[in-house]
């Protein structure tokens, strides 16, 4: 049987413009997929899973999702996710989170579903914070999906500042229970995905109170609905928070407690505890209860890189079949992908997708190391990884939003149609700027770490700096960019270091002038977030270079070197003003970077379609095949866009009747009245 999307497979019947693109590729997309996904086996597994899903009709959308109401969307996503549940053990390794993520994104798309958070936000905190006994009680049931769960932390009044969460869990010595209570409207849990209508359990974050002392946010396992009737348990108010910008196949919800009692054993107590007599046993790190958030953030670079890659696959393929305007040859209009402006719009974003995915895999590995260390009681890596993931989460979500929006614009009018599916991808991805820590808030977390590091360097203690920030103590030696990537890294290090130092010095000066620490911090906050972004972008560049260095296959290494050079020049150009300001970069160097960038665009051009083909998204995943009711048509692998756009329009419910009630009830009477 032929795989649905082998690259070098040139298929009869595909749009010849796309076929032509695939023939110019200088590398094999299967080999590239191995680099993107980490190994031959992992890339092959993805193809096998996509192939298997495409053969199960009940896993396909039964109708084009953009034409559905919210209730219908939830019903449809629930139908698919439960059907998928039946097939899962046969299709994927149930312990492999990447396979689970991939298959859900194939089947569900981007609209979310009532189990969306069960595997990513309910089970992980239970694993991380739950004791063996608690795993015994809930983990198996959760994994088998006997119970459905969510993660209820954010409240109506507080999301960013979790120390001020108002939901309380008060320990009752007499009954050895925790009493969960929502004292005000503001204290209602608000936002948790899958809470509104689907979950019957929640990991609830509440302020732990023992003998009137507040011990801060802690995690509790709470059953919120009856397992038989699915009715909320007495003492619980729960519901959906209404439609959102996107992700409307998921039921984000609210939750309130009226002195709702849970057993003492429901405090997730692997790292901390409340003993029978109310004695509090501290965790080994003050912020241990936040570990689950580090985990989610550590996965966001790869996730967001994949979102952007999906939008770019649609936009690049479409740009190779869309012909409009002329260059030299006036007898045939050009593919819009041949315009330099189009390339400048799309190719740097392709480079960023690769960069984020490579960076993401490193970050996930770092988290796994942290997790192993935490399990053996060593929490020394937490601060570094908290700082790193705070920055990465913020930079990649923002730049992914930019990249997807450019992809949409690059598709002209058809990009604005829901037939492109890009708006749905955008809506899902851009939520990442807010969820899991609002971006500015998280950049300021990284800034705390950078300021401390600069202070160490200033105090002449560079030896105390971790490897991630060692450059803050490096001397400034001018670099010749012609010598290659290392020189770019040094230039970036200078820029990042200078901004961190400037922001720290400004902060110190403010305090010396008598301004309080908090106020001084706020007065420097914009400069501090700039330092955080630069530091993070430097880190992403370094991971890209490391990955390319490690590649052995020459054809892959060559094209990825082109992509990396594009990334280096694009990133450096974007921040050049910082280095021009102090004369570290000359205007000649600036000209050099621009020329390198333009020449990188030309080098990438013949490989552009194959670079996005290499992500190996199936048409199902991109919602790109109308015939199977998968409705998105712009990014189809076969490139037959126009006839499918027409089919898409014909399938609109509005076109199922010639004269709508809006006409008979309102427009016609209006026109008749005007005639009188
Ligand atoms: C196709 C498939 C589609 C799938 C799509 C997926 C959809 C998923 C959708 C949604 C999921 C979203 C889930 C959520 O959003 S859950 C809620 C997340 N909420 C947050 O992230 C809240 C953010 N706020 C915080 O994390 C904290 O409030 C804080 C900003 C970190 C501040 O905390 P706190 O006030 O306690 O701390 P301080 O600022 O005073 O800092 C004190 C020191 O502690 C250090 N610190 C803070 N956090 C950590 C940590 N996690 N680990 C280690 N150390 C930490 C901090 O650095 C300070 O150190 P210092 O040395 O400077 O004193
Ligand atoms: C799609 C989606 C899914 C979500 N899923 C979940 C979930 O499953 N479970 C859950 O518990 N939560 C969930 N959330 C909630 C989410 O985690 C919070 O919305 C997020 O952490 C931001 O908090 P906030 O809403 O309080 O923003 P706010 O903090 O109110 O942000 C408003 C503005 O204030 C600024 N600001 C706030 N504090 C500071 C500061 N200290 N310094 C400078 N500026 C500041 C921010 O930068 C922002 O510009 C979800 C949210 C979304 C959008």
Automatic annotation (TrEMBL):
UniProt GO MF annotations: acyl-CoA oxidase activity; ATP binding; FAD binding; fatty acid binding
Keyword Lipid metabolism appears in the UniProt entry: yes
GO biological process annotation, one example: fatty acid beta-oxidation using acyl-CoA oxidase
Name assigned to this protein: Acyl-coenzyme A oxidase
Domain Acyl-CoA oxidase C-alpha1: residue ranges: 290-451
InterPro entries: ACOX_C_alpha1 (IPR055060), Acyl-CoA_ox_N (IPR029320), Acyl-CoA_Oxase/DH_mid-dom_sf (IPR046373), Acyl-CoA_oxidase (IPR012258), Acyl-CoA_oxidase_C (IPR002655), AcylCo_DH-like_C (IPR036250), AcylCoA_DH/ox_N_sf (IPR037069), AcylCoA_DH/oxidase_NM_dom_sf (IPR009100)
Subcellular location, record wording: Peroxisome
Active-site residues from the entry: 436 (proton acceptor)
Domain Acyl-coenzyme A oxidase N-terminal: 28-148
Pathway note: Lipid metabolism; peroxisomal fatty acid beta-oxidation
Binding site for FAD: 154, 193
Ranges annotated as spanning the membrane: none
Cofactor(s) in the UniProt record: FAD
Keywords from the named record: ATP-binding, FAD, Fatty acid metabolism, Flavoprotein, Lipid metabolism, Nucleotide-binding, Oxidoreductase, Peroxisome
All copies of domain Acyl-CoA oxidase C-terminal, residue ranges: 485-672
Pfam families linked: ACOX, ACOX_C_alpha1, Acyl-CoA_ox_N
A GO cellular component entry from the record: peroxisome
Keyword Nucleotide-binding: yes
Protein family per UniProt: Belongs to the acyl-CoA oxidase family.
């Amino acid at each position: 049987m032929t795989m649905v999307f082998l690259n070098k497979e040139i298929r009869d019947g595909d749009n010849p413009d796309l076929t032509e693109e695939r023939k110019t590729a200088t590398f094999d997309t299967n080999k590239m997929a191995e680099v993107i996904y980490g190994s031959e086996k992992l890339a092959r597994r993805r193809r096998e899973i996509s192939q298997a899903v495409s053969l199960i009709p009940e896993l396909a959308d039964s109708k084009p999702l953009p034409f559905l109401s919210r209730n219908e969307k939830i019903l449809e996503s629930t139908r698919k996710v439960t059907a998928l549940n039946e097939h899962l053990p046969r299709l994927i390794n149930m312990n492999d989170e990447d396979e689970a993520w991939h298959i859900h994104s194939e089947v569900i798309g981007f609209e979310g579903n009532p189990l969306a958070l069960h595997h990513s936000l309910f089970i992980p905190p239970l694993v991380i914070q739950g004791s063996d006994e608690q795993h015994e009680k809930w983990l198996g049931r959760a994994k088998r999906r006997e119970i459905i769960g969510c993660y209820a932390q954010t409240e109506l009044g507080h999301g960013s500042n979790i120390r001020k969460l108002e939901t309380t869990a008060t320990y009752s010595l007499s009954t050895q229970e925790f009493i969960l209570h929502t004292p005000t409207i503001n204290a209602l849990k608000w936002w948790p995905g899958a809470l509104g209508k689907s979950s019957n359990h929640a990991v609830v974050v509440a302020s732990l109170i023992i003998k009137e002392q507040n011990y801060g946010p802690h995690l509790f396992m709470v059953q919120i609905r009856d397992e038989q009737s699915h009715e909320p348990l007495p003492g619980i108010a729960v519901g959906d928070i209404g439609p959102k910008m996107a992700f409307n196949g998921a039921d984000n919800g609210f939750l309130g407690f009226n002195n709702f009692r849970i057993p003492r054993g429901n405090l997730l107590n692997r790292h901390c505890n409340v003993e029978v007599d109310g004695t509090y046993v501290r965790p080994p790190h003050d912020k241990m209860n936040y570990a689950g958030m580090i985990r989610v953030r550590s996965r966001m670079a790869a996730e967001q890189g994949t979102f952007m890659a999906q939008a770019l696959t649609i936009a690049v393929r479409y740009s190779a079949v869309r012909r409009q305007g002329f260059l030299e040859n006036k007898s045939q209009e050009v593919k819009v992908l041949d315009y330099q402006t189009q390339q400048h719009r799309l190719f740097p974003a392709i480079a960023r997708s690769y960069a984020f995915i490579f960076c993401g895999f490193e970050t996930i590995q770092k988290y796994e190391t942290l997790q192993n260390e935490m399990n053996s009681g060593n929490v020394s890596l937490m601060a570094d990884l908290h700082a790193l993931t705070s920055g990465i989460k913020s930079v990649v979500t923002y730049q992914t939003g930019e990249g997807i929006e450019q992809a949409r614009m690059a598709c002209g009018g058809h990009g604005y149609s829901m037939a492109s599916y890009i708006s749905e991808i955008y809506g899902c991805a851009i939520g990442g700027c807010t969820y899991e820590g609002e971006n500015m808030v998280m950049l300021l977390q990284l800034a705390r770490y950078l300021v401390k590091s600069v202070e160490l360097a200033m105090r002449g203690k560079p030896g105390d700096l971790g490897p991630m920030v060692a450059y803050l103590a490096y001397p400034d030696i001018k670099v010749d960019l012609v010598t290659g990537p290392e020189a770019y890294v040094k230039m970036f290090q200078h820029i990042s270091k200078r901004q961190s130092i400037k922001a720290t010095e400004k902060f110190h000066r403010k305090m010396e002038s008598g301004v309080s620490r908090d106020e001084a911090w706020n007065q420097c906050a914009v400069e501090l977030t700039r330092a955080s972004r630069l530091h993070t972008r430097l880190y992403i560049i370094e991971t890209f270079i490391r990955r390319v260095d490690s590649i052995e296959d020459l054809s892959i290494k060559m094209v990825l070197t082109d992509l990396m050079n594009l990334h280096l020049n694009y990133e450096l150009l974007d921040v050049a003003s910082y280095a021009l300001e102090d004369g570290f970069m000359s205007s000649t160097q600036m000209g050099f970077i621009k020329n390198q960038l333009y020449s990188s665009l030309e080098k990438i051009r013949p490989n552009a379609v194959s670079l996005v083909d290499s992500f190996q998204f199936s048409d199902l995943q991109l919602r790109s095949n109308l015939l199977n009711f998968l409705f998105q048509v712009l990014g189809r692998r076969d490139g037959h866009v126009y006839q499918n756009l027409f089919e898409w329009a014909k399938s609109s419910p509005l076109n199922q009747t010639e004269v709508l009630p809006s006409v008979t009830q309102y427009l016609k009477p209006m026109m008749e009245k005007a005639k009188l």
